[in-house]
Amino acid sequence: MDAVRLMKELKVNCEQEADFLPKETGLNLIVSAQQSSSQISARCRDTKVEDLWSLTSFFGYSARTFVLAVSLLDRFLAMMRVQPKHLSCISLSCLHMAARVTEEECDLTPVDELIRIGQCRFTVSDLCRMEKIIGEKLSFKSKAVTALTFLQLYHQITLTHATCRMEALSLEKLEAQLKACLCRISFSKAKPSILALALLRQEMETIGSEDMLEIAFHIQRHLKVPDAELQRWSERVARRLSDYASPKCSKPNHRKLQWIVSRRTAQSLHSHRSVPELSTIPEDGWDQSESEDSSEDLLSSGDEALSSSLGSDAEGAFFPLHLGR
After folding, report:
1. pLDDT at residue 299 tops 70
2. In angstroms, how far is the first alpha carbon of the chain from the final one?
C-alpha cells in the first residue's frame, strides 16, 4: 500500500512541477548579464543563494526552507527586472516566506533579528512590503513542488523496494548535495524531478548498489525521462559535486556555525538603526523580447556576502573527492 501511495504522489507532483519552474527566458537574461550595478548577474544570484544557505544553517532551518526560498527567489528574479541593490531584501523576504510555511511557529526568527543577523539595510516594513509583492507576483500560498519534493519521494520509494541495507543511502547527504547544486543558477533550468533523479543515481553509483540502481531505472521509466536528458544532468551534477569537493572550493568546518564580529559590528547589531521610509514603488515593464511581466523598482539595500561560511551540512564528507562515474 505504501508503494502504491508513493507512486500516486509522485505522479501528482510530476503533473504540477511545471507550475513552479522559473521562466527560462528570465534565467537566460540573468546568465547573460554582465556584472554591473543595473542588472542581476548569475554570480550575484549565486552569491545571494550561498548567503541564504548560511542563514538557514545559522537559524537551524530545515532543507525544505532553503530549497523553497531558492525556488521563490529564482521564480521572482526570472519574472521581474531587479537591480542588484534590491537583491538582499528580495532574498531575505523569500527566506522568511519559506520559513513561515515550513518551520514551526515557535522556531521562527523574529523579522528584526533576521534583518540584523543578515546585516541588511532595510526596515521590517520594507521586508513586509516586499513579501506582499513577491506573494502577489508568484500567486504564492504555501505549496511548491521542488527538487527536494522528488528527492524525498525517491528516497522513500527506494526504502520501500530495496532489499539491501538502506543506511548507505543517506537522505541528509542527498539534501546537502542538492543545496550545493542550487547554489548555481544553471541547475534552476533543470526540471526538479530530473535533477533529483540525477542526484539519486549519482549517489547510488557511488555506493555501487545494483539493487538501488535498478529501482532508479524503474523510476526513470515510470516518469518517462529520456536517457539522454538524464545523462546530461547526471554529468552536470557530477562536475558540480566534484568541483565542490575540491580543496580550492572554500567550505566551512563540520561544526556549528559561529560568527566572529568586531566590536563595532556587534554594537551595530544590537542597536536600532533608523532608516527613512522609501518612496512608493513605481512600475515599468520589460521589453516584450525580455519578459511578459511588469517590473518593480523595488527597495534599496547594500550588503556584504555571508557565503564565506555555508553551514555544517556543507562539509566535505558529503562531497567525496572520488565520485562515482
Report:
1. no
2. 35
- Nearest one of 65, 62, 63 to 94, comparing CA atoms: 65
- Reading the block at residue 144, the C-alpha cell is 511548491
Contact between 69 and 183 under an 8 Å Cβ cutoff? The reply is no
pLDDT for 51: 93
Q: Please enumerate in sequence order all residues whose Cβ is within 8 A of that of 48, keeping only pairs 6 or more positions apart, or say none.
A: 73, 87, 88, 91, 305
Cα radius of gyration (the chain): 20
What burial class does residue 110 get, using C-beta atoms within 10 Å of its C-beta: 0-12 exposed, 13-18 middle, 19+ buried?
Answer: exposed
Render pLDDT for 33-57 as a digit per residue (tens, 0 to 9): 887 667 899 999 999 999 999 999 9
- Model confidence pLDDT, tens digit, residues 209-233: 888 999 999 999 999 999 999 999 9
Element containing residue 285 per DSSP (H, E): strand 283-285
Q: Where are the alpha helices (DSSP H) in the chain?
A: 2-16, 24-32, 42-59, 63-79, 87-102, 111-117, 124-138, 147-161, 171-182, 192-207, 210-223, 227-245, 263-270
Q: Cell for 52?
A: 541564504
For residues 191 and 60, what is the distance between their CA atoms, to the nearest angstrom? 28
Q: Are 73 and 88 in contact (CB under 8 A)?
A: no
Strand 283-285 with 294-296, pairing: antiparallel
Residues 79-98 have pLDDT tens digits of 998 888 899 999 999 999 99
Question: Can you give the pTM of this predicted structure?
Answer: 0.80
What type of residue is 81? R
DSSP-derived letter for residue 296 is: E
Please give the Cα distance from 222 to 11 (Å, whole number): 9
